[in-house]
Amino acid sequence: MTHSPLDTTPDAPEAGSADAATQVTEEQSVVTSAADAAARAHAASTPFALTDRAARADALLAVADALAADADTLVPVGLRETGLAEARLRGELNRTVVQLRLFADTVRAGDYLDVRIDEADPGFALGARPDLRRYLVPVGPVVNFAASNFPFAFSVAGGDTAAALAAGCPVILKAHPGHPELSRLTAQVVVRALAEAGMPDGTFQLIEGQDAGIEALRDPRVAAGSFTGSLGAGRALADIAASRPAPIPFFGELGSVNPVFVTADGLVSAGGADALAAGFVASVSGSAGQLCTKPGFLFVPTGTLAQLDAPIREAAEGVAAHRLLYPKITSGYVERRDTILGVEGVRPVAAGTVEVDDDGHGWVTPTIVSVDLDTLLSAGEDLLDEAFGPLSIVVEYDPATTDLAALVPELFPGSLTATVYAGDTEQSDDLDRLVFALSRHAGRVLFGGWPTGVAVTPAMQHGGPWPATTNDSSTSVGTAALLRFLRPVAFQSAPDRMLPPELRDGNPSSVPRATAPAGESTSWGSTSV
Amino acid sequence: MTHSPLDTTPDAPEAGSADAATQVTEEQSVVTSAADAAARAHAASTPFALTDRAARADALLAVADALAADADTLVPVGLRETGLAEARLRGELNRTVVQLRLFADTVRAGDYLDVRIDEADPGFALGARPDLRRYLVPVGPVVNFAASNFPFAFSVAGGDTAAALAAGCPVILKAHPGHPELSRLTAQVVVRALAEAGMPDGTFQLIEGQDAGIEALRDPRVAAGSFTGSLGAGRALADIAASRPAPIPFFGELGSVNPVFVTADGLVSAGGADALAAGFVASVSGSAGQLCTKPGFLFVPTGTLAQLDAPIREAAEGVAAHRLLYPKITSGYVERRDTILGVEGVRPVAAGTVEVDDDGHGWVTPTIVSVDLDTLLSAGEDLLDEAFGPLSIVVEYDPATTDLAALVPELFPGSLTATVYAGDTEQSDDLDRLVFALSRHAGRVLFGGWPTGVAVTPAMQHGGPWPATTNDSSTSVGTAALLRFLRPVAFQSAPDRMLPPELRDGNPSSVPRATAPAGESTSWGSTSV
After folding, report:
1. Which residues on chain B are in Cβ contact (under 8 Å) with A512?
2. Which member of B27, B81, B92, B292 is catalytic?
3. How many domains, in total, are found in chain B?
4. B222/B264 same-domain check
């Protein structure tokens, strides 16, 4: 078994207990000020970028192994701080470990470098062309704002950190206040594993507090930002990044309502009303609905609701009360839920409950409501805005008179996901148009299944048009996520000895390369110069 | 010969002549208001995105052929409106034609789609993984702000237009006021060629005036912006794009000073002082220095200036006076030149001239000055800001005591290019550090040669850290430029019939695809779930 850097960590005090201050003092070595973090990340930037890819891959594996080895220390702290279930947190930690390994494989393979080599060509259509070699280089220090709802997979050692480290960028991690102790413990694991793997001091650092996060994002030594959280906070940070004296890219994953559409023939492919209801309620209520991909809307043909009503209510009433992550989530959920329930024409299918315990934690069961399409259209943002928590809206529409494709841009301009249940052999212009519209307004289009399952793989896309993300040309899940932290540079007429190994003659580091050979543009020879 | 849509165009009136108003009226059909342009581009967006790639490639070729066929009509208008030389404009038009053909080839090949296919895998390390297929889709209507200094290659039918059309995005082109008639004539060629190739109405439109440009950039139907021009205008537009209710990506190519460094051993590889001086002056004065890649600084070892002084002056004095593009360029150049000449310690090597004719056009010969390093460091932005026009600064430095690599981030934080002249077999830590620093602060690093030659090829990178561009992860020259106007979408568990051809089983459209086969993650099997 790998040595665990956490073996000697004292028992964690209860959050808010008298011991909390002591705990902070004992662990403060892992927490840095924004200015110090920027200075150290800046200093680490060059040596880390120059680390060869194999060593960087090994470092990612070392972090993965260290996290896996410390699961039994980390998970209980996560349980206490977040209220999430043990199976969920163990699965999430495993996902965090696996995604570090996926990025290690990605770094080692080198495809992501997008190496392009134009051979020198004296006969090029525009006149003699020099030798040009282009690949992607790390942008420099990245500040990652951790999410509350994935205390492992989108937090300290989560996807953004793994992607930035894989790209060769030092990381300044702004901890989420919802799980401060877990953040510090995880940061200790990451810092030690990277140090033991020989990575430069300052490759990974933890900062705490909103002010520190903003200060880091404004620091001229920081080259990019990433974030997973609310629309309001994400917009504020995006505006800060864009308005700096030297603007930097900011990759925010914000709000999404992930509509699901059942066509007139779709109920059969969904396995019937009972199966659809069970899957829907499970997807809405898993992790108490605190997932970016929770289906916020279920569109069903007129008359279907009568079949779904009882099974949805029964499934929802069978879900045990689940704690929400932290008090601010509770207050936000109560506010959105009250607004939705207050809209004229909204009918509860499963009323659901919200109860606040003595510690201020909200405990919830699923709330499912139904509306007709006219109500949805007239209510606007009161119904259309994301409700973060276990609430979803069933919408009945008339397939004979409703142009779903035309409604998508207005109702759902930007979502992470959109799901279609169509007939097994259904083919129609309406369906083609709906799928096309969804592909223009969501990052991932599912055919059956539920969007809350997110594969961490090369082809995953987790990002969509505003307000789903600030930057829909990127993904925050899957191996393509490291592209956010790279930029291209071209070397012209460079002596071989001055090139990075990935661009040298003979391809010593064995990366895939796209070569434009001399003479390929001769077909344009009819053009006069 | 291809039929020319311009064969019947009347002789163009002189700019500012009494006929100008008539001309505008005759041609106004090609100019649209921002609101109309956005509406038509929005309407074109879906049919154009659905056009198959072969048809889109053919349309790009049709535009290229039409422009080539109309060279003799277009070039004389460009000559009159811009003051650029005929050889330059004919070469630039050819470049414009060739880059359209390059993009046609790129669209046909389909590599740029970054197709990724994850096979369904029941044994994936994180549990059963669905079939996922990801590729890039057009973002939607793009507003391109044309540049003044490349009336063909960065204007109406220039690189940004070619890239956006190649990506499948309708284009709203905001004309540059420096060459209004050429803009309208070129737009006519583009509109007719696209229509004849069967592309949707609204695929390409021309708008005029700053207010219309801003209105288009703010229009909710517009999905991205691109720009080539000044730092001030680019920053203002970038801020508008970022502060919209729904922010959009904005790709601005702004200011760059393109430093050139001659090492202690570099003068020999440059061919000696005379050759270096001749190449330097030619690069500074070509097109009257009105190029984004003009070398604004030449660093030479102490003592070298004595050898360069006479040949630089002689070469500069041999350059004929050249008209600047339009009066605002002249006033900007005069202001920057006066500021630079007024800095204490600045010594003219070639004084240069600026004369304004009766039409308000500035005529210039090259101004080359020299300073020592201390003067440069203390003068700050007075010397470091871009001087757009035929002016450059020679800096003497002491190789024994100067750490050039350490100066790069402070003096030249972001440039399009940086050039090194080193010894033919030179190898040293200092040189390695300098090249690495330049690769972090420029988009293209040249070894010898001059940066004003820009190859339009797959490996070209024309973009660099702020203030060179607003978005250094992109290029505005070369085939990679179309990536700016694409975003990823993934299809999960889609029936083959519902997939775009590029993602279907059997790869009917023959695009390169990266496949993650089932079972590849078994090496991670030791992880507990």
Report:
1. none
2. B292
3. 2
4. no
Average pLDDT, chain B: 92
Question: Which DSSP helix (H) or strand (E) runs through B369?
Answer: strand B367-372
B253 is catalytic: yes
Distance from the Cα of residue A116 to its chain's centroid: 29
A158-to-A60, A98, A144, A392, B354 alpha-carbon distances in Å: 12, 10, 10, 28, 59
Task: Clarify whether residues B195 and B278 are in a common domain.
Answer: no
Helix axes A34-50, B429-441, angle to 10 degrees: 120
Q: Is residue A386 situated within a structural domain?
A: yes
Report residue B126: phi and psi, to 5°. -105, 20
Query: Any residues with CB less than 8 A from the CB of A157 and at least 6 apart, and which?
Result: A63, A67, A96, A100, A186, A189, A190
Work out the pLDDT band at B127, boundaries 50, 70, 90. Answer: confident
One-letter amino acid for residue A41 of the chain:
A
Domain that holds residue A212: 24-254+478-484
- Answer whether B303 touches A (CB < 8 Å): no
Whole-number Cα distances in Å, B442 to A491, A503, B63, B211, B416 = 10, 17, 33, 33, 5
- Residue of B501 and B4 predicted with greater confidence: B501
Q: Helix axis angle, B180-196 relative to B20-27, nearest 10°?
A: 20
Q: How far apart are CA A57 and CA B127, in angstroms?
A: 23
A-interface mutation test, from B408, B457, B477, most A Cβ less than 10 A away? B457
Q: If we measure between CA atoms, which residue out of A398, A373, A424, A149 comes closest to residue A259?
A: A373
Q: Is residue B458 part of a domain?
A: no
Which of B171, B152, B176 lies closest to B64 in space, CA to CA? B152
Supply the Cα-derived Rg of chain B in whole angstroms. Answer: 25
> Structure pTM?
0.93
Mark whether B50 and B176 lie in a shared domain.
yes
Cα A86 to Cα B157: distance, rounded to the nearest angstrom: 59
CB B239 within 8 A of CB B452: no
The predicted structure's pLDDT at residue B520: 67
- pLDDT of the residue at B223: 98
CA distance A184 to B208: 56
Domain harbouring B194, CATH code? 3.40.605.10
Q: Do A411 and A281 fall into the same domain?
A: yes
Helices (H) and strands (E) in chain A, counts: 17, 19
Q: Are residues B372 and B274 in the same domain?
A: yes
Known catalytic residue at A253:
yes
Is A443 close to B116, i.e. CB distance below 8 A?
A: no
For residue A28, pLDDT over 90 is answered with no
In a domain, B155, yes or no: yes
CA dist B282 and B261 (Å) reads 17
Is A448 near chain B, with CB under 8 Å?
yes
Residues A268 and A167 in one domain: no
| A490 inside domain | no
Q: Does one domain contain both B396 and B310?
A: yes
**Count helices and strands in chain B by DSSP H and E runs:** 17, 19
Nearest chain B Cα to A432, which residue? B498
Q: Touching check for B139 and chain A: CB below 8 Å?
A: yes
Return the CATH number at B440: 3.40.309.10
Q: What is the pLDDT of residues A332-383, one digit of tens each?
A: 999 999 999 999 999 999 999 999 999 899 999 999 999 999 999 999 999 9
The distance of Cα B361 from the centroid of its chain, to the nearest Å, equals 25
Residue that is written with structure tokens 């896996």 in the block: A68
Q: In the structure, what pLDDT confidence band is assigned to residue A30 with cuts at 50, 70 and 90?
A: confident
Beta A353-356 vs A362-365: how paired, if at all?
Answer: antiparallel
Q: Which uninterrupted H or E stretch holds B297?
A: strand B297-301
Please check whether residues A303 and A202 belong to one and the same domain.
no
The tens digit of pLDDT for each residue in B468-514 reads: 999 999 999 999 999 999 999 999 999 999 999 999 999 999 999 99
ipTM of the complex: 0.93
